[in-house]
Amino acid sequence: MSNHCFFFFFISSFCFASFASGATLAQDEVEALEDIGKTVGKEWDFSVDPCSGERNWSTKDKNNVEKNNVTCNCDGPNGTVCHVTRIILKEQNLPGTLPRNLFKLPYLQELDLSRNYLNGTIPKEWGSTKLVKISLLANRLTGEIPTEITNISTLLDLNLEANQFSGILPLELGNLTQILRLLLNSNNFTGELPISLARLSKLLDFRIGDNQFSGKIPDFIHQNMKNISILRIEGSGLSGPIPSEISQLQNLTDLRISDLRGSETSTFPPLDKMMNLQYLILRNCNIIGDLPEFLGTMTNLKDNLDLSFNKLTGPIPDAYETIAKKAKNVYLSGNLLNGTVPSWIEHAKSIDISYNNLNITSQESATCNQVDRNLFANSITNGSGEDACLEGYTCSQLSYNLHINCGGKEVLVNKSTYDDDGVADGGDVRFLWNRNRNWAVSTTGNFMNNDDREGKHLVSNKSVLSIENVDLYMTARASPISLTYYGFCLGNGNYTIFLHFAEIAFTDDQTFSSLGRRVFDIYIQEELVKEGFNIAEEAGGNGKAIRKTFRAVVSSNTLKIRLNWAGKGTTALPYKSVYGPLISAITVNSDNPPPMPSSISVGVVVGIVVAVVVVIILMFGILWWKCCLRKKSSLEIELRGLELRTGVFTLRQIKVATNNFAEENKIGEGGFGPVYKGCLSDGTLIAVKLLSSKSRQGNREFLNEIGMISALQHPHLVKLYGCCVEGDQLLLVYEYMENNSLARALFGPEEHQIRLDWATRYKICIGIARGLAYLHEESRLKVVHRDIKTTNVLLDKDLNPKISDFGLAKLDEEENTHISTRIAGTYGYMAPEYAMHGYLTDKADVYSFGIVVLEIIIGRNNIIHRQNEESFSILDWAHMLKTKGDLMELVDRRLGSDWKKEEVLVAIKVALLCTQVTTTLRPTMSSVVSILEGKSVVNEVVTEASEVLDEKRMEAMRKYYSELSIEVTWTASSTSASDLYPTHLDSSFLDKRNYL
């Protein structure tokens, strides 16, 4: 059965008799409607009978579409009593909540509250209704799906798309065995898809994209949902690979899978029997192998074919000519395709083959600038390796800045002229030069909005903006999938990049048009610098400006800024469309002044050169005499040996930024020495670490920190802006973290403590875990930090955690796990196998993380307390309470009752699991992230403590920690970070535990 037949059957199955003369709605149902109107915020006119269709009981829009309708069935035995069978309140901007008393309308079959401003949760009382269709599309509803709703055995259509629902899907969803349409996309659901969904064998339409699910694409989809026609799994959180058995779903007309997690690859699934396919999207799914020939025989594939951002190889088959001429869009970009570009490419409707290894003839390169064809970043056939779309392109003059008013006309802002970028809207595929040919823009993707392309790539604001430099935010350029700006002819060197954003496509009011959610990733020079960027969220609302600052190194005179949609964000708000990346303006400035042009005569130049040489010789002599040159050059040679992705600052710049290292700007002492707050000339706040180069150990850690962190970029790692080496000054320049360290926030001096509620503490645990998972498993360099502790976790203005201080970090070398040099780290946080035997793996960081989690829960730092020759730590205290079955006694009393027992218990179990003495029993950090996010279940921890529970010792611990908890209020602690009050762990303490 096709989708069209399904919906025709669905609608026609209702009996909506016309209003019979003299028939009226039953009084109890009138009262129910009055309550429903008050609850949702709808002002119905009860001066006429609700079933009459008069006044505001039934209205249509200009397109004759019902958006406000109460339908009744008046075909009762005597024809005098009517019953409500359908309520449609679409696009009404209703501000209320969902009504609980639907059960008072016993004949109600359809409820459509799409595109309103409703909040709250789904009432459990709905479980006793006989609804056939429920649509809550595009509201701001929250909470979990109540299990009671699965009692509606008559339910055929459930649409929860584009809300803020969360939690794991209830197993009871499998009870809806008659359901034909289940839309769960664009929410915050987590966990694995329950196996009970295998019972939904009648499903025709199943959508789960834009969520936070975990696990792989389940087998029950292809094993049990044989009738399915529409399957959408875009940005769902699920991992690859795509199961080859998905080819068994031969009734599919619309298959969309994108942005699968994980690195596991798969070959192209054998879809040759899916002859009904009209849409096929398998984007960023780690597919390898050649492009399959059979796609060229799929005559119904007339809408979209998107295989971009995979690892597909081989030539483009000749059979694809048919698809290219019939399909609205074909996307093959970002693969490893080779061979010659087919001659039929110029007859394609819309095709993107950019970023491949294809060979392009000189004649074909002329198509580079045409609408609906993108051939950029492929090679010309002369073997030079030159980009065919840049053939013959030369730079007449290098520039050191770039200003673009994205999607708009030329404007003058702050004495800088921003180039016109509104000349052409561009098609779904386009590579477009600006008129001066010093930059270009490339767009990819289809808005999936009934092919209505006009004006979609160029967005104009239609409301009043109260924004500084408003001219930069009146327009924007957008793209459904990928939006890339290229800056050409830039002088090589370090640059500061400002990306200007304002969400002008969504309204800033209390209507459904304000509920759209745009999420995309930002890449600069092909490096991910911002993942999951949400303009409105970061700016504090729609119509508000936000400027993001990045730094990059330009080489080969080219800068590349790419914004990429990864399947996240709403596609139904305010209306059906793909709301991919959007940008208002771009500002690019060199960090160093451009070279001055010269027209001086040869004689003068020679004289200047001679004078300069003499001065240099004198300076070298003086420096050598003072022994400064040898010290500095040694460090600079090592610095040059590092492939840094950071900027270089002058000492003068940093002195100006910190007011000459003024005492009032000193914000602490780090592993190197003092740390100062500063402000660069562009307004960027920085933190400057300062170290004297006379320390050989400091030099080593200085170089290590630069080398490590310059290669690591993650939202939960502190960003390194650059460094400075001048004379005996060694400095690191970091992003400024407004809330200092986690240690100071939890148990620092009273004037510096921050009230961290449980939700914030749990968020911090997850953030640290994500950062460590990146270091251990996801980054190109596999890194062991070696010094994870609360003083090395910094908090930004939103209390998001970021791991800092990489001076002791070490590459994780599996074949060399024994440290023969000094043991580095902080006692109290060091894993026993590392502290005692120098055995180092990433599990040492896992142990330290466990200690940090305990500190976050207890609100105390891990001081080893000694009393009458007995010593104990918070880890001992946790094990003692676990043995006693009283783990909740660990919780910081300052939290009062404002904490979730389930989350606290998970966090404690994770901490105990991470601090197991046996390294193999400790989890990986990716497993920890999964557990904390509720995607996996934490196993029960079996304590490894060998000592028999000593009641006397237990009482001593309880007395010690109870006294601390009573004495300490949110502002009364005098204990500072462990860097200032170091802890000590002796071998006798470690010997009391089973070491393996």
Automatic annotation (TrEMBL):
Coiled coil: none annotated. Keywords: ATP-binding, Glycoprotein, Kinase, Leucine-rich repeat, Membrane, Nucleotide-binding, Phosphoprotein, Receptor, Repeat, Serine/threonine-protein kinase, Signal, Transferase, Transmembrane, Transmembrane helix. It holds the Pfam family Pkinase. InterPro entries: Kinase-like_dom_sf, Leu-rich_rpt, LRR_dom_sf, LRR_Rcpt-Like_S/T_Kinase, Malectin_dom, Prot_kinase_dom, Ser/Thr_kinase_AS. It catalyses: L-seryl-[protein] + ATP = O-phospho-L-seryl-[protein] + ADP + H(+); L-threonyl-[protein] + ATP = O-phospho-L-threonyl-[protein] + ADP + H(+). SUPFAM superfamilies: L domain-like (SSF52058), Protein kinase-like (PK-like) (SSF56112). Residues 1-22 form the signal peptide. The chain crosses the membrane at residues 600-625. One of its GO terms (molecular function) is ATP binding. It is found in: Membrane. Residues 661-913 form the Protein kinase domain. Its main location: membrane. Its EC number is 2.7.11.1. This is non-specific serine/threonine protein kinase.
